[in-house]
Amino acid sequence: MTTAAGATRVPQEERTRLMRARLLEATVDCLVERGFAGTSTTLVSERAGVSRGAQLHHFPTKNDLVVAAVEHLTEKRGAELAAAAQKLPSGSRRTRAVLEMLADHFTGPVFSAALELWVAARTDETLLAAVSPLELRVGRETHRLTVELLGADESVPGTRELVQATLDLVRGLGLANTITDDARRRRRILDRWADVLDQELA
């Protein structure tokens, strides 16, 4: 749409979509930097550059905002993994590269924000009701992607458990990294686990 002065006007629907996206991105950033307890609707609206009135119109409470951010995070985590998977090499180093990709995901800021929500959901029934089904969806999709990237045949007894153990391992390494920089130890563990996977999945 163009005004008489020649400037292009953004349709209301698109302006609303962009504003909501800014609020959700700001919520994720706040969760990473300040944790769930330190995230407030006021802080989020300031960071997003959105008026308090507009923010409250779309997300009246902190939980409304955070629940929407959970959905946003789910989509973002899936897109992040899919994009990283496109860059993986083939050949003898592929297994190690897959593990590195997964470890990068579970030590990144998007996982840190998700972790804040897990902890908060443990004692908040409303948040738990929103987080649980989405985390199940993320878990299933991450498992499916890992099977595909490793070329694993889950009809072989024990293979499904091996893939799940791989995801449990990289998730645990991600948790360890929230306390201290664990990069050197993580590299050694992933080197060894890549050898195990290559041997077991051959």
Features of the shown structure:
single chain; 202 residues; mainly alpha; 9 helices; 75% helix; elongated
Explain this structure to me?
It is a single chain. With 202 residues, the protein is mainly α. Helix content is 75%, strand content 0%. The protein contains nine helices and no strands. The chain has helices at residues 12-34, 41-48, 52-58, 62-85, 94-106, 109-121, 125-150, 159-177, 183-201. α5 (94-106) crosses α8 (159-177), α5 packs across α9 (183-201) and α8 (159-177) packs antiparallel against α9 (183-201). The model has no long low-confidence stretch (mean pLDDT 86).
Helix content: over 70%
End-to-end separation in angstroms reads 59 Å
Shape: elongated
Would you list the SSEs in sequence order as H and E? HHHHHHHHH
Structural class of the secondary elements? mainly alpha
Largest sheet: none
The amount of beta strand, in percent, is: under 5%
Summed up, the helix count is 9
Look at the structure and give the mean pLDDT: 86
What is Rg?
Answer: 20 Å
Task: Give the low-pLDDT segments.
Answer: none
Count of extended strands: 0
